[in-house]
Specification:
Elements (H helix, E strand, L loop, with lengths): L3 E3 L9 E9 L3 H10 L13 E4 L2 E4 L8 H4 L13 H16 L10 E3 L5 E3 H4 L24 E3 L7 H6 L4 E9 L11 E11 L1 H5 L26 H23 L4 E9 L2 E11 L2 E11 L1 H6 L6 E8 H9 L12 H4 L22 E9 L6 H12 L3 E11 L3
Parallel strand pairs: 1-14, 5-8
Antiparallel strand pairs: 2-14, 2-15, 3-4, 6-7, 8-9, 9-13, 10-11, 11-12, 12-13
Helix pairs in contact: 1-11, 3-9
């Protein structure tokens, strides 16, 4: 059933009206709540007190605060640590692979694993430590969940890179929940989970098994090109790149099978250069599964590892789980329905699982129109209003029409 509601009766000259289509399970009570809420300012969609408590700690709110109670309710759920959850299965498979494939000098795993860091970080940790410029679009308030001007919910697990390197670690994995304002559909959700990997090398570790390696060095005073940073030698970069791609190729082969077709695509990240994305040919489609690259030496140096060079990668656990298990909608990961959860109660983490749909209910479609203030309108803020009121009942939101009054 489709219902169209125009919430503003008068037509202000020079204003723009947008018409949106909401698809999901929408009740009459939701419609009434929506009508009362839509007229509020997008930037102040949720009334909050002067402080916010997250994981037992209180934070003072300010003009940067935009984290809603709906988002805060997800903090501490730690789906990636819930035994037999599909995200836990993926994390454990990756961890198990690294533990078995990479052994240190004393017979212990080379990579240490951290999967319980709280998601509240400083803006410096999330951006500055990773060399992300002050004017970079990834810092925008409309794309992140700021608790206040100085603290936020991390937008990537890379927020912990600097601290772990500074502590003296040179091989580690970090898994955790991350938060980004995003659109509403079956492949996007404001809370998802990442797994980060970092490996640093000294000159001895990198060149030890290379013929003629005693004549190589990690650093030089050269020029920055598309292939290397100005401070790295070409020999060092190519060996680090080879190690990175070999490590990740072995990982996805472990997850998807040895016959998997892989390709590498050059890309850009502020904290790595050169940078790459890995795509896999899965069931006839090329799918991007992770990003990686040679770490920016400025980041490594600032963390106290001036005599080392390294690589880093980051992958989305939901992305891998949706591909591996055939899960069609990212919101299912938050389901408490036993019909979903029991499908992943397997005796071994490597057991093959094919998700079986368990609901045949048709969607309910509603159309809604409203005037928008062009100077303040933020599309992601609109999505936050929808999530706050309708939660996960809303499956999809599409802009279907825009009208600008001619006068």
């Amino acid at each position: 059933m489709a219902v169209s509601r125009n919430l503003i009766q008068k037509m202000p000259y020079g204003k723009m009206v947008s018409r949106w289509r909401l698809q999901g399970i929408i009740t009459s009570s939701f419609s009434h709540m929506w009508c009362r809420s839509i007229v509020s300012d997008f930037s102040a969609s949720i009334s909050t007190p002067n402080t916010m408590e997250v994981l037992g700690k209180s934070y003072v709110l300010d003009d940067f605060s935009n984290t809603t109670k709906k988002i805060i309710s997800k903090v501490g759920k730690n789906l990636h640590n819930q035994r037999h959850h599909p995200l836990w299965l993926i994390k454990e498979r990756v961890k198990d692979h690294f533990y078995k494939q990479y052994i240190g000098r004393f017979g212990t795993p080379l990579f240490s694993v951290y999967d319980d860091f709280p998601p509240v970080v400083t803006v410096e940790q999330n951006f500055d430590s990773l060399l992300i410029p002050k004017d970079h679009p990834s810092r925008l308030k409309g794309d992140n969940y700021y608790i206040n001007r100085f603290h936020m919910l991390r937008s990537h697990t890379s927020a912990h890179q600097w601290d772990l390197i500074h502590s003296g670690l040179d091989a580690f994995l970090v898994a955790g929940d991350v938060y980004r304002c995003d659109q509403i559909d079956k492949t996007h959700y404001p809370v998802f989970h990442q797994l980060e990997g970092v490996r640093l090398f000294s000159d001895h570790e990198l060149f030890n098994n290379v013929r003629g390696g005693e004549g190589f060095c990690l650093f030089e005073q050269g020029l920055r090109t598309s292939q290397k940073q100005e401070i790295h030698t070409m020999e060092a970069v190519k060996l680090v790149e080879h190690s990175l791609k070999r490590t990740l190729t072995k990982l996805v082969a472990h997850l998807f099978g040895d016959e998997l077709e892989i390709r590498w695509v050059d890309c850009y990240f502020p904290f790595t250069h050169p940078s790459f994305e890995m795509e896999i040919n899965y069931q006839g489609k090329w799918l991007e599964v992770l990003g990686c690259g040679v770490m920016e030496q400025q980041l490594v140096n600032s963390a106290g590892a001036e005599n080392k060079i390294g690589w880093a990668f980051g992958l989305g656990l939901e992305r891998l789980a949706m591909i591996l298990y055939g899960i069609p909608d990212i919101r299912l990961f938050w389901s408490k329905d036993e019909r979903f959860l029991k499908q992943f109660e397997v005796p071994h983490i490597d057991q093959k699982i094919e998700f079986q749909p368990f609901s045949k209910c048709p969607p309910v479609i509603n159309d809604i129109s409203f005037w928008i203030p062009s100077e303040k309108y933020c599309e992601n803020a609109f999505y936050e209003i929808i999530r706050t009121i309708g939660g996960d009942l809303i499956e999809n939101v599409d802009l279907i029409d825009v009208y600008v009054h001619p006068k």
